[in-house]
Amino acid sequence: MEASSSNAHVDYATTEIVFFDLETTVPRKSGQGFSVLEFGAILVCPRKLVELESYCTLIRPRDITAVGTRSSRRGGITRDAVLGAPMFEEVADKIFGILNGRIWAGHNIQRFDCVRIKEAFAKIGRDAPVPVGLIDSLGVLTEKFGRRAGNMKMETLASYFGLGRQKHRSLDDVRMNLEVVKHCATVLFLESSLPSLLRGKWQPSTSMITRSRSHNQHKMTCRGEGNNVISRKSPTSLGYQRAVPHGKASLGKMTEKMKSLLYTAQGNQPLNHLLKHSLLR
Question: ∠ CA 177-181-184 to the nearest 5 degrees?
Fold first, then answer.
């Protein structure tokens, strides 16, 4: 991974990555602007790609009429849902503490979420948090993984890997984002390990289907080994189905084996391959 000289002192191997996502209103008329309705984030250890902490809150906009009484999406945010929620200024300190000085990660955050965060802090007359690096998985995966999954929207990538439907709720979406990055990194690792066999040939078959298995291996945190350290695993998707190209091997076992190699023997090389040139600041 690369960074600008102004961030040369930052240890990217230990600096936590914060995957975050915003749900907002959609402007209905010129000059209305966006209002943040929900903020969700997870702190991730960059060495082991496990979730350390999470935070999510609904946010009541100043103009409550900007929120629809109904949502076009199942489980979407409605006016009733945010009536009793805190205003942005009430949770600004918490959000600032989560984001400031960390590596920011998310899907299409460079064009949308980062801009909305700056706007939200500007509206309350405060300086916005500043990242030490930025990982926009939309751009990174488009460049490194390619458009083999389709239009590169999060819901399309999730469907490609059999991770379920995108819920368009902040905390669910950032966890899905992390799983998508892991899956893409694993595929790239396989292709780089066996280029003559897998590159360009990893196509799903409609004739074979296997059920993904979850792994319950204990994971240490990267903050220390004390009992008072919070550690939470990113939830793996259970019960989904995925097409596999060969019937003699279990892709589930292969994926877990490759992930194990990815996290240990290879020293996170596949992830670093994915994220090279992504730290823009």
Answer: 135
